Amino acid sequence: MKNRYSIWILSVVLCFFVFSGATLAASISEKTIRLTNAWPCYIDPAIAADFASSVSVANLYDTLVFPTHDGEVVPHLAESWTISDDGLTYVFKLRSGVKFHDGSELKAEDVKFSMDRLLAIGQGYSYIFKPVIESVEANDDYTVTFHLKKTFGPFLYSLVRLYVLNKDLVMANIEQNGEFGELGDYGKRWLLTNDAGSGPYQVQEMKLEEYLHAVRFIDYWKPFDPNAPDSFRNIGTTETATVRTLIQKRELEISDFRQPAEFYDNVSKLEGIKVAKLFGGSTFFAMMHNKKAPTDDIHFRKALAYSIDYDAIANHIFPGSHQCQGPVSFILPGHNPNVFQYKRDLEKAKEELALSPYADKLDEYPVDLIWCAEVPDEEKVALLIQANAADIGIQVNVIKNPWMKIIEEVATPETTASMYLIFVSP
Given 1.10.540.10, 3.20.20.70, 3.10.105.10, 3.30.70.940, which CATH number is that of 5-13+281-424? Predict the structure, then answer.
């Protein structure tokens, strides 16, 4: 089945910003890292998919393999693996002695349970695995086998999104009369505010509307870096004034990447504050609904794509970024630097629009473009797209929605708008 979105327009590589200075000595001595993110934050690996959630579960849970900065994967919970000649069977040998946060040992049955649960719940990153997983088998305590329905080249890389849960702990906390029959709610309610992981940090407190506070797991199987924090707090806000206040009060080390460029210029002028850029690898997409008029027509979509001033976005709205070649980030395997790249070309845009069945009735088919309220710079992009599209006669309605409403809207094709501005992390 085709995806209901077409990903066109642009991808812009962004950075995180870290604030430091001599006046932060107190927080540094306590080795607590505080960061801001757009809420909500889900710490259930079967639900987590957005940025705030991914940052959290990556620290609370472990995966079979672990991603490197250059886009490769290395052994993690799995010490080694073999792949059958036909590419349909993957056998992983697990490390022994890895402990969950409750002290019990992580075994192959937990890996099987985690994949089975993810597929049954059907949220989060299940969309990666649903089309390809035939079955999962726990051969013994330290051997787990994945049987695929068809070959899937990125399968090994996709396992960085399979977070392993403690089966016994989850099953001890299921609520009966849930949507999964004898499995009740599959532990979904409990995992809203608790973890069942083996990761380097464990939940100390989760306030759903405010923050996640996690502390170091002292029995973690890997050695900690000497500079690793004792705890971290993921704070649910991207409101510019609030973030600035936290920085001024020395109560924040890492900002979200959603602040406007002028925010960092202003913050860098605060006494005792230094702003350091860290490459985050995120990409910025304009996604179009290809099952809903008028963006269901390829010529209409191409017309929009040719109308956009990408250079203005990359150089002025997101300075320091660049337009991507294709939908795959250059830091990931599969990136093709030779993929066609759209540039603003109004003549080509008009040619494509003339081929669209909507060309003679554009006033009947405006495009609703949704931008995320928590990301102020997205409004600038939306207004630019609106102005650019007007140059070829396409009406774009710019709509501001909070992230939570966007999540609700895109749950079904019927409630999904024509176009969204979305950040995606590798």
Answer: 3.10.105.10
Q: What is the pLDDT of residue 375?
A: 85
Torsion of CA 364, 371, 264, 48, to 10 degrees: -160
The answer, yes or no, to whether residue 212 has pLDDT greater than 90, is yes
* Closest to 136 measured CA to CA, from 154, 123, 155, 124: 155
Whether 255 contacts 19, CB under 8 Å: yes
pLDDT value of position 30: 66
What is the mean predicted confidence (pLDDT) over 23-34? 60
Q: What is the mean predicted confidence (pLDDT) over 61-74?
A: 90
* Matching CATH number, 74-179, of 3.40.50.20, 3.90.76.10, 3.40.50.2000, 3.40.190.10: 3.90.76.10
- 18-45+49-58+185-275 adopts what CATH topology? D-Maltodextrin-Binding Protein; domain 2 (3.40.190)
Distance, in Å, from the CA atom of 5 to the CA atom of 87, rounded to the nearest integer, reads 29
> With pLDDT > 70 as the criterion, what percentage of the chain qualifies?
92
Per-residue pLDDT, averaged over 232-259, amounts to 88
In degrees rounded to 5, what are phi and psi of residue 323?
-75, 135
The residue to which tokens 């931008």 are assigned: 371
CB atoms within 10 A of CB 282: 19
Report the C-alpha gap between 264 and 361 in whole angstroms.
44
**DSSP string over 277-323:** EEE---EEEEEEETTSTTTTSHHHHHHHHHH--HHHIIIIISTT--B
pLDDT(7) > 70: no
Which regions of 84-195 does DSSP assign to beta strands (E)? 89-94, 133-140, 143-148
Q: Where are the beta strands (DSSP E) in 2-124?
A: 5-8, 15-20, 32-37, 65-67, 73-75, 78-83, 89-94
For tokens 């997101």, name the residue. 318
Question: Which pLDDT tens digit goes with each residue over 397-407?
Answer: 999 999 889 98
Rounded to 5 degrees, φ, ψ at 89 are -130, 125
- Residue 280 is predicted with a pLDDT of 66
What are the residue ranges spanned by the domains of the chain?
5-13+281-424, 18-45+49-58+185-275, 74-179
